[in-house]
Structures are given as structure tokens and as C-alpha cells.
């Protein structure tokens, strides 16, 4: 068998090369997806350096939120209350101010792995200072700052360079005087750090003199941190503080990072499954075609005594050799694929460049093993089919299909479709557990997408059943247009449905990927534009051009005052946001489960200016201090009624608010969950991020001059801001585009390979047609009419699958953002693109088929 396999490699190297390239690209996509997943997990769970690494005890103001280990303390601590107590060797005040840093060119620096950027004090006590200066010196005066290494690299900053910093209430330009690391890491668990003199940070946090959000404590020699924590907790009781050991906080952060890394790996793993699915699909198609081309040779081997087991072993040996070579090349190809995905993710505000490229055994061995496994799985069905070839088939033409067993194909398609219900069934669990909102919609949509992809595989199994009717239709059209060539095309199409369906299946997959993505994006964008322009009454909006991990970069609060001073402006309202946790009424847990915290994204707005710039649904009256308006979906999910007293936990601790009523933001862009007045927002979170400034009146030129001193801002018209805000809601689309684009290229390559190999498979047939008088034009016409059948089948099944996917998304989510109303130009564009690709890939094989000499046809397998 080894000698026969070696001869097959030597004689059929062109066909094997095409199959090898298909497998290599498939494995490269898998390896790149895995490499990206591992690097993302390393960026999240590996960034567990802590600014508390030299502290023993932390005294935090207010009540610590156990659900958020990175939450800003909501109380105040006097440094004098902690310093000098028994067992305390040293103290340092701490405060956390969320900021946005901009590098050279004014571009916002994206913090690593979805974290944030905070301004923290540089501790004067070296026993508590965890920062190691890589270059430069410590900050000594106001306007000086030390940045962590990731900030310096991402912003291309060096010692002596200016860095633009957007504080919650104003923007400032500071001088970089040093670059630091923490435990040899470029960032800490909470993200990037800007380190300034303590007094600068205290003023930026709005803290009274001598008070801090927290105090770092160094235990005296011989004093255990646990004992010091207990002593301080007893001595400071009644002062509204929380005392924790630094080790407990570091452990909680590490556990949270590990959990976040696992969740991220699961999400990216679902996207990566697109690569695995397409890879297996393409390799199975091309390898199956390769085996089918050798029907005569395998039948002759059976005739001279080869057993079915030997033939199976021969096919598997070829698949093993092909898989090993393709795996080695695919692992290498995976690194540029991962680099592309990393770049796409960074553009959407999730930067994983803080983690190094992975070269561990998982990153190398796993995709290689997966490549061998994929080729073996692809060869399994082909080997079984080859082992069943009877010796009498040696007398038949290789291009003629043997009578298939319809029930086995139907049973296989039903089995694949049953697998899709693993995803469809989980939708009911999400709908019963998750309250209505964006998270439930996204989760449901992902499950629908995965289930429909599996359904596409079931359609591929059934594709040969559709070839006969469609081939007959194309044949009749071909007969009317091309005469005898059309009749011959009809005969070849209906005689070999499996060959036609193999090429059509790859095209169907490509059309389904492109059409589903296009329908989703067009539907969502149209709905955002329609609802957004309906809600937004403002003439202009001022927004930042940069992106952070949580969306568009925030603006300084004083931007609204600058815009209000522009000529002709009647209203300039800052739209602020902060995340709070609903404390009362508490969320109801599921049976035998701990209650999940319910977070509310609260929007702050000036009640006097709000009606002039936003038109929200409902009859919510102007909000007074201490009142909150809730979206109708939130009130329904949490069973809250108008006039009810609720308690939320914000940056300043627990705040009791009265529900003034319900409203609705159909665009989900401005006030999606909760709305309060500006005065109430100051009580919830004085440092709440300003997402935009909505302006009524004035001109774009005057507003641009008014905010010229604010770094990285842009004055937009109504539709321009709606698009900008919508882009923040659709983060991650670039990555999805990247996955789908690479999968599409792979699917089209598989189709081109299958078409080329199927023409090569019919060398004998085309040569004999030429021998009996068929002209070159007629032979080319036969190939083209067969390509038309491939286009018709691929487009009908692919576009139909896309329409079905979006329809199921609409029914499963109940969201108006998914609409099954494709524009006519999309149908025409997809059809024209599929036809162009198919005809282009069949042009060269058609020309080669027409030029096959009779003698070569006689020698053909």
C-alpha cells in the first residue's frame, strides 16, 4: 500500500497540491483563531500585576462592593485616622480617577484587554511603592506624570513628551517624566496607570484636604496582616470604612481575571468555530472530490485482490501525509492570521498587544493535531465510499455517479440538523434566565447564528437532491440558447449530481456567510439611523473621535460650557453615563442559585435642556433631584412601579431614588436603561463620563472654534453622531468581519479547487466528446452551463439560509433591529458576485477541457 500511495502522490501531485492548499488555509485559519484566543486570555488573565503588591492592609472608604473588585471606593478616609496606630509602619493615600490618555497625534490610547485607565498617586513611602522606573524619574510637581509601559508603547511616548489627559471635568496636558512597570508587567489588573503627585490626584478626585478614597498600610515588623486588619477594623468601626488585607484583594482580582479570561475564550471560541466549520467543510469537499476522481483505479485495485480494509488504509495514509504537511504550514500561517485579528480587535477598543505572541505547546500542537484530525475526518467518508467500489465500476466512466442511497443521505442530514438544536434549545434557557436587553439579544443572536450554520451543513448533505430539478431547468434554458451543447450539459449535470453539489455547497457556504452578515448589518444600521434621527432633536453633537474598551472616549465636562458660549447656541447639554448596581429591590435568584447582581447604566441630563435635544418615548415629566426615570423594559424585568423607592449603589455609595415614571429610547443610543438629572448624577458619580455634548442652535464652524482646545473631539451633524454612537454599540463587528472574510476566502478557494478538480476528473469524457465531433465552443459551453447550475443552487440555498437566519433571529429576540427585508440591490449584488466568481474559476478549466486531445483522453483514468 505504501508503494501505491507513493505512486499516487507522484502521478497526481497537481490535484494533491490543490487539496493540500485547501487544508493548509483551513488549518491556518484554525491556528490563527487559537493563537488569538490564547493571546487574548493571556492579556486578560495574565495581567495580574497589582499596585497593592507591597501593601499589607487596605483601608477603603465606604462599603466595599463584593461584586466589583475594581470599583472606586464610595467613601472617604482621613489619613490621620490610620497613620500612627499600633502595628502600622507606613501609610499612603490612594485615589482612583478614571481618565483617557492620548498619545502622539491626539489618538486615544486603548487600555489593555478591555480594562480602563486611571490616575493614581505616586507613593512617597518607598516601602509601599510597587512601581519600578524603567526610565526617567518620579513625578515631583503638578503637571508631571509617570506612565506605565503599555501607555508609553501604545501612545509612542517617551520621557519628556507631552501627554493629553481627559479628566472627568476638564482636559489637561502633562509632561511624561518617567515610564514604570509593576512586577515586571506593562499594566496592572485594572488596566493602565498614570501616576502623578498625590496632591494632583487628590484635587482631580475632588477630595477634601487630608482625605482619600483609600489608604495603603504597611504592617510593622512581626505584625501579621490578618491581625493588623482585625485591629484596624475594630479601631475604625463607626467611621464608614472597609478594612481588607491586600492579599485578599489581589486574590479576588486574580480570580476575576481568570474568570474573565475563560469567558473571553468561550466567546472567541464560538467565533473560531466558524473557522473549524469552514475548514472541515472545504477539506471534506476537496478530499472527497480527489477520491472520487480515482474511482477507476480503486475499482481496479479491488479487481486484482485489494481488500476494502486495504483501500481504506490507503486513503487514510494519504490523508495523514497530507494532514501532517498541511498542519506544519497551517501553524506557521496562523501567526499572520492572529496578527490581523489582533489589529481588528484593537480598532474596536480591545487591545491585547500587552500579551506576547504565544509559542507554547498548546499554540503549536493543538492546531497541528486539529489539522490531522480534520483531514482524517474528511477522509473517513471518502474511504468508506472508496472501499465499497465494485470491480465492475472499472468499466464505467469516472464521472458517472453510482446510484446513491437516498435514505442514508436523508438520515445524515437529519442527524446534522439535530445537532443544530443544541444551539436552538439553549435559546429558551437564555430567554427564561436573562432579562430583556442588549445582552440577551446578543447572546440569543450568537446561538441562532451557530445553529443556522449547522443547518447549512445539513443543506449541503441534501444538495444532490436539488441538482436534478435545477439542472433540468438550466438544461432547458441551455438547450434553447446553445442547442446541442445545452442538452449535453443537462445530461452531465443530472447524471453526476454529487459532483455539481460539491462545488455548489462551497459556494452556498460563502453566499450564506456574506448574505447573513450583510442582512444583519444593513438591518441594524437602518434601524439605528431611523430610530436615532427620530430621537435626536439636537442640531449638532460634540463627541470624541477615539475609542476605549467601553466605547467612544469620554469628553471633559467643561466641553458643554465651551459649546454653550458659541454664537447662536440655545442649549448645550452634556450627556453623562455611569454604571450603578440595583440594591433594592434585590434581583430574584433562580432556584438553587445565588442571585446575580443587576447593573443599571444611568444617563445624566439637564432636565431643562433635555426636551430640546432628545425626544424620548413615554410621558416622563422633567426629573427633579432624587428622582430617576426607568426604561419600560427595566421596570417590567425588575417588577418596579411608578412612585416606588429604589436604592442603587454608585461611585458615592448607596443612593435612594424615587421612580418618577417610565420612558423608552427606541434607538438604545442615548438613555437605554435609566435617566436622572445632572444634580442627581453628581450625587451618584461626580466623575461620570461625558459621552457627548448635544447642541441646539449655532453653526458647525462656530462650535468647532469653541472646542478647538479640547483634544480629539469632532463636531457632528445629527446623522453623523447617530452613526458614531451606533458604532460604539456594535463593537466587535470588525473582528466578526475578519473571521467571516477569511472564512469566505477559504470557501471560495474550496469551490474553485472543487470546480477545477471536477473538470480534471472528466478528462476522458471531454476528450471522447471531441472525438465524436463536439467543437471547442460546445465543450466550453457545457462547462459554463454546469457552472450556471452551481451558481443557481449556491445562491438559492445560501441566500435562503441567510434569510432564514435573520428571520429566526427576529423571532427569537423579538428585536426590531433584525428585519427580513433585503434590498433588491443586495440580491442582485450577491447573485452577480457568485456568478462572477464561479465563471472566473471555471474559465480556465473549461479552456483546458476543450483542448484535451483524444489520445490523452484514451489514457485518462
Automatic annotation (TrEMBL):
Transmembrane regions: 264-287, 319-341, 361-383, 410-430, 442-467, 735-760, 790-812, 824-844
GO cellular component, as recorded: plasma membrane protein complex
Record carries keyword Transmembrane helix: yes
Cellular localisation: Cell membrane
Start and end residues of each ABC3 transporter permease C-terminal domain: 270-391, 739-853
GO biological process: lipoprotein localization to outer membrane
Alphabetical keyword list: Cell membrane, Membrane, Transmembrane, Transmembrane helix
Membrane topology reported for the UniProt record: Multi-pass membrane protein
Pfam families: FtsX
Family named by the database record: Belongs to the ABC-4 integral membrane protein family. LolC/E subfamily.
UniProt-recorded name of the protein: FtsX-like permease family protein
Organism lineage: Bacteria, Bacillati, Actinomycetota, Actinomycetes, Streptosporangiales
